[in-house]
């Protein structure tokens, strides 16, 4: 294989941690997120002939993943969420629990956002996508993504204003610090998670 040969498998494998982090931010369930990533990879393999190699692979995969998630939600809207992870997480105490509490505040603040705003916010702020890439993933214009992210930032800030951070973690309670905590909790770039 020459250096010019494109290897879809290598690029796909390198993007799995990012796909997993995005899936977890969408569904908040690790097992379902992993299933969505697997389905995304299978669909990408099946549709490799439809992929335009002149464009980045990452937005194309994220668009497939996002579509898979919303298709899953439409099919399973009657199912009751039986996620046991919140119960299990209460069984263990983390040494840096105040940072997790601060990040938990920020994550709960994301719940006030509409689906479109949350998707745009997570893609741009936590996912590191450009407005154009996020627009491609969400099937809308880059300007629409900019507007959604701006409104989402304002709503998250308003939502967090009335919430007090842990006293020991006041330095980490600023908005940008909390966004970094969200990235870590979502597992962005965490292969082992």
Explain what the structure shows:
With 193 residues, the protein is mainly alpha-helical. It folds into two domains: 8-76, Orthogonal Bundle (Rna Polymerase Sigma Factor, Chain: A); 97-193, Winged helix-like DNA-binding domain superfamily/Winged helix DNA-binding domain (Arc Repressor Mutant, subunit A). 66% of the residues lie in helices and 0% in strands. It is built from nine helices and no strands. The chain has helices at 8-27, 30-46, 57-75, 85-89, 97-110, 115-126, 131-138, 142-161, 175-186. It is globular, with a radius of gyration of 18 Å. Mean pLDDT is 75; it is low at 165-173 and 188-193.
The backbone outline, from C-alpha atoms, is: globular
- The number of distinct helices, counting runs of at least 4 residues, comes to 9
User: Which band does the percent of strand residues land in?
Assistant: under 5%
* Second rung of CATH, namely the architecture of the largest domain: Orthogonal Bundle
Mean of pLDDT: 75
User: What name does the CATH topology of the largest domain carry?
Assistant: Arc Repressor Mutant, subunit A
Structural class: mainly alpha
Integer-rounded radius of gyration: 18 Å
Q: Which regions have little confidence, pLDDT < 50, spanning 5+ residues?
A: 165-173, 188-193
Q: How many strand segments?
A: 0
H/E topology pattern = HHHHHHHHH
**Whole-number count of domains:** 2
Our measurement of the CA-to-CA distance between the termini, rounded to an integer number of angstroms, reads 32 Å
CATH class of the largest domain equals: Mainly Alpha
- Helical fraction: 55-70%
The CATH superfamily label of the largest domain reads Winged helix-like DNA-binding domain superfamily/Winged helix DNA-binding domain
How would a textbook summarize the main sheet? none
């Amino acid at each position: 294989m020459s250096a010019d040969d494109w290897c879809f498998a290598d690029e796909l494998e390198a993007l799995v941690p990012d796909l997993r982090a995005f899936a977890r931010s969408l569904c908040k369930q690790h097992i379902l997120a992993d299933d969505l990533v697997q389905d995304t990879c299978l669909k990408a393999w099946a549709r490799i002939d439809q992929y335009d190699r002149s464009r980045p692979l990452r937005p194309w995969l994220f668009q497939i993943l996002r579509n898979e998630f919303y298709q899953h939600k439409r099919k399973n809207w009657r199912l009751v969420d039986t996620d046991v992870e919140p119960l299990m997480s209460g069984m263990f105490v983390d040494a840096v629990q105040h940072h997790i509490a601060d990040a938990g505040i920020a994550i709960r603040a994301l719940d006030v956002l509409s689906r479109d705003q949350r998707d745009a916010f997570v893609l741009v702020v936590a996912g590191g996508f450009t407005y154009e890439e996020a627009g491609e993933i969400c099937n809308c214009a880059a300007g629409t993504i900019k507007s959604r992210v701006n409104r989402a930032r304002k709503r998250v800030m308003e939502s967090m204003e009335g919430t007090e951070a842990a006293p020991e973690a006041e330095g980490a309670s600023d908005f940008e610090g909390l966004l970094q905590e969200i990235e870590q909790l979502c597992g962005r770039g965490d292969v082992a998670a």
